[in-house]
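Lab notebook: predicted structure, single chain.

Context: the supervisor wants predicted structures on file for every construct in the current expression panel, including those that have not yet been purified. This is the next one on the list. No modifications to the sequence; it matches the entry in the shared construct table.
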Amino acid sequence: MEYEEVKRGRSFILKFEHKDNFLDELLSFVKEKQIRAGKIEIIGALKNAKGAVGPQTDELPPTPVIKEINNAHEVVGVGTIFWQDDEPKLHLHCAIGHKDDANVICIRQDTEVFIVIEAILQEYVETTAERKIDEEIKMPLLSFEPLP
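Prediction complete. Output recorded below exactly as produced.
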């Protein structure tokens, strides 16, 4: 295990409106506010989303199983934001459901808001945390550099 003690920075309450592209709007906001590290919690509904629902097998590097959401699903989720090179990267796991269909999904793309998503975004400062490609897993994972 690795860790780094950080301090809380700014906090934001966000409202994403019907038909907004949740990922595009969120990452645009993160860039605008230069949030280098943070946590997000969301509640609301999504439609037309895609994401991973697990790996095909327990082998590395993993091949994701991608699920498409083609109708409105209730959603509650928590995620982290750290930058990789010059771009913020979101790692967001959500419980989603519609009628009797329920899943946990790592949201990746095509995230159209249905009615509303409310979110709390907490910034963390005085951190070296960022995402770097792990050579064995072939995915961007959290990494720390020694503080000066």
